[in-house]
Design a protein that fits this description.
This protein is an alpha/beta fold. The chain has two domains: 173 residues, no CATH class; 77 residues, Double Stranded RNA Binding Domain (2-Layer Sandwich). It contains ten helices and five strands; from the N terminus they run H-E-H-E-E-E-E-H-H-H-H-H-H-H-H. Strands 2-1-3-4-5 form a five-stranded mixed sheet, covered by helices on one side. The longest helix has 24 residues. 37% of the residues are buried.
């Protein structure tokens, strides 16, 4: 993020008014998961995997007012899990290859967060086993959000050197606000104290703002303009910048250290791959002229 003192003050004002309040309100809600069906031993294995490191009573066979039911059942040798939200008839069904804790968390974690996206931060904060799934969901969601924001703007494209954003003060404020809210949510997910919000964000940004991180990102995004697939360059850059910053913050909260340079490069490649899959439908909102047919090459003749 590149911004001046005036922009930062505006962003901080917006965050105090709404950004932090919504996150803090979501953390007040206690989300419980019910694990039912199958045999007691199978239920207990799933409960222990999901509840590892958490306070009692959040995951169990008989919990009050569960937000989601995980109903285990056997079909032959398959162990299936139906994810059922109370009040909804539809259910997602997943197969558990085994009952090892790593398999249970890797299989069910992302699906639980997808079913309860508005509770992702609270779930991640209270259930450490689901932190990674909750954090990954937030990083992707905010990356898409900022890409959509960039697509809706009629202001000039971003320079491929990442900053400064030439899109104007209004767009810059919104992009920056979203990135700061993402960092705050990741801090909440990873159990950081939230009483001094300004100090927390200053700490993280001072670490993630290390020159090597942004030089690496700018260098690798320099060739982003001919990205293809109908993706507007500044849309792809907004997505990638948010994704890399989010993943770097996630790493920092998990390991108490900034990500190694090689890992930042991997985050950029992940973002590019995700952008190719998620962003082709995000285009400029103003009319564009018809695309001419491609000129045949010698290989086409």
């Amino acid at each position: 993020m590149v911004f001046g003192l005036g922009t930062l003050a505006t962003v901080w004002g917006l965050l105090r008014e709404s950004g932090f309040a919504e996150v803090d309100a979501s953390l007040e809600r206690v989300v419980r998961l019910a694990v039912t069906g199958a045999s007691p031993a199978e239920r207990q294995a799933v409960i222990e995997a999901l509840a590892a490191g958490s306070e009692p009573g959040l995951v169990g066979h008989d919990v009050p007012s569960p937000a989601l039911e995980l109903r285990l059942r056997r079909e032959g040798r398959q162990l299936l899990v139906d994810l059922i939200t109370p009040g909804y008839q539809s259910a997602d069904t997943l197969e558990l290859a085994n009952l090892w804790a790593e398999t249970v968390v890797a299989t069910l974690g992302p699906a639980i967060i997808e079913r309860l996206p508005l509770e992702a931060v609270g779930i991640g904060r209270r259930l450490p086993a689901l932190r990674e799934a909750a954090a990954n969901h937030q990083v992707r969601a905010y990356s898409v959000l900022n890409a959509q924001l960039a697509a809706l703007s009629n202001l000039p494209d971003l320079l491929p050197a990442l900053g400064p954003f030439l899109a104007g003060a209004a767009e810059l404020v919104l992009l920056t606000k979203n990135q700061l809210v993402l960092i705050y949510k990741l801090a909440a997910i990873y159990g950081r104290p939230l009483n001094d919000k300004k100090a927390l964000l200053t700490e993280v940004l001072s670490v993630l703002g290390a020159a090597y991180l942004w030089r690496s990102l700018a260098r690798q995004l320099a060739g982003f303009a001919p990205f293809g697939l109908g993706i507007v360059p500044k849309v792809a850059i907004a997505f990638t910048a948010t994704y890399v910053e989010g993943k770097s913050a996630q790493y920092y909260f998990e390991h108490q250290a900034p990500p190694p340079r090689e890992l930042v490069g991997r985050f950029i490649e992940e973002a590019k791959a995700l952008a190719q899959r998620l962003l082709p439908g995000i285009r400029r909102q103003r009319p564009t002229p018809p695309t001419p047919l491609p000129t045949p090459t010698s290989q086409d003749r």
